[in-house]
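Handout, section B. The chain below has 765 residues.
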Amino acid sequence: MNHPVPINNHLNSRNSFMFLFIFIHLLHVQIASSSSIHSNLPHMVKIPSGEFVQGYTNTPIPANLSNAAELFPNGDYDEQPYHTSRIQKSFYVSAFEVTNLEFEQFQPEHYSYRNTLNFSKNDDDAVLFVSWYDAVNYCKWLTKTYGEKNGMKYRLLTETEWEWSARANTTTLFWTGNTIPNEMHNHNDCNNGMPHPGEITPTKVGRFQPNPFGLYDTLGNVEEWVDDWYNMYEADGSSSRKSQQQLKVTRGGSHGTELYYLRSANRQAAVPTEKNWFIGFRIAADKIIEQTNIHEIDHYKNNDTSSMIVVVEEEERVTLHANELRMKDKVSSSWPSYNKHNGNMNDMKVPILKPYVNIPMPAGNSRLPFIKHNHDPTITACKMYDRATKQVIDRGLIASWFSTNCGEAGRCAGIAYSQLLPNANKWTIAKKDLNLADRTQCCPAYFYDRDTYRLYQFSAACAAGDWSGFYSDLAGLLRYSDDCGETWSDVQIIWPKHGVEHQIVVTIIKSHFTNQLLIPVDHWGIPPYVELGDQTLVQHNDYINMSSLFNSKQWYRSPSKSGTKGYNNTGGHHSSIVELKNQSYLTVGRGHPQTCTLFSKDGCMPISISNDGAFNWIGPNPSPFPAIHGGQREVMIRLGSIDQPIMLCSFANSGMKVPCGDDDNDTAAMTTSMEITGLFCSISLTEGDSWEYTRSITTDLTAKGHSVSGFDGAKFKMSYNSSEPNGYMDATIDDDGYIHLITSMNHYQFNLEYMMMLPNCNPTL
């Protein structure tokens, strides 16, 4: 079978170009009979019926395919159990992945996506930056435009059909055997698939040999959307196609994946609204009618869009009535008042520090998300509104991390969660929360709306497997829950353009004055921003209702300053943000080793102020807190409503002097001090102008010290002046005035009164 031939790129008229391509393409494509197919239709080949073993079949995977930490020599967990599948009737599949030229008959405006990130530039390149809905609607358009009069219906393949077609009656890891000759696949190990500046990654269809069924590019090139919802194989080998699933299956691997992901059994998944640089599709039909009129191209030539069907609209979302939710006089006004307690104390002015709680992981070291380490935690106290009883129900705490058993340089990171239910003294064993197969997921961040009792989870996902490509490959995701994480809405992409500003920082806030939702996002110091270093930007949304959060066009950042590159940034990395009483914003962030001397002035974390709604920033200036490194992240939150104090928690990597008192007089002269190391928190009663109270967060008040598991499983000695030395963290406060501080492994509970009590200078050993 001949491949589509290259076309001259210098033709003046695009319409002429398309006409010429169609004509030449038809002359060079071998078809099943002497009759020519319709010029506007993808070339289809017949796939026979048959029976095969689907999934991973315990065939040993060569070491060269599974030598990376995230790749498993016995296949991925979602490829099992293997099972016998039957294709009862023959069907037809497009020999090639759908091309730009073919897809743009249906959606001419897609032309603007060509060459985005240096991908899919030419007419005969596989189409990219198409969602699952785009692929489905293309099939509907083909059916309506060309198929209905002949009784033809175009569709996506099922997952089972795809694997049968790709295997082509073979039983090995690939249809080529248990290895793939280099000349038979489109796959790029360089930079983990992400292009270097100026590099073009070709995705032209049909450059390599077809498989025995006559299908091209089943080994890489682009991942292909199929019809199925993603789920684990059941015990009987079936795969769920339930509509409540959130992800759609993709198959085949791409130009940007390791050879491991090109195996016939390998499964990937993605949010159906996602448009990116590595997913395209091919189509199927149960029957085809060969067309003889190859000159019927008026629609193509004139860019006629009159026959286009309406694109599937996003499912309407129902928001609970405001009169049911805005119960300010009953609940929202009960922001921490520091005069309630869940236990036997009725006066929260008593300093309270509860023993730390380790958040348990499942036994063993199984696959995602059960782990070498949890990272980037988020936590919130949460209540739900029961519409049946019209009661507000306390659901305790929920926490989430991205979790990995391969470090951070692999495509095996996903999101895990745990709960601390009311009156419980143990967190639930961590479970999978959101898991896109063969994708890297990170940056979970909760926003709990106390007015509507709705919990939002923001996160990010990408296909790159290491940090060299990670920063330029993130897409922003969002879903919500009305029952504190028991059930979730479908996950949606809110920032569809993959980019550097989609790595979310956990301190999401809603303005007390403007109702805006503000999300700090990391801005990595890459060209052309290298001189800026690693910074933080702020995503804004005019939070009118829930639908605005899911509308990508409602999100915006500050414009670039005149004469500068990039957006206006906070001057610090991983920056936390709080709103001040004067309607300004305060951020504190860590520097990056590359920019430490510039932004971590005097060895301190940088601090900045914005007086115009978190767009432009004054600073950075030195904060009173020591600089921290890449394995650490600070957190800064408001302890309740706008009139409550601000708390910042961070790390002291060497002895930091703090005021202390004694057993008889905890308000001793401020000149008396002690040194602390590790995790500490500070309280500001003056809107960040000064930090009046600082102390180590430890529960070993006997000063005897004991070993505690910390970041990445590392042990540390806990004592009256020594605490957790490493990790990322987040904090929240509940309606009873408890402050909850969470790290990658541990949960600390205390109250404001504990923070404002000076530590003992001379504890009894």
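Note. The first strand starts at residue 44 and ends at 47. Compare this with the example in section A.
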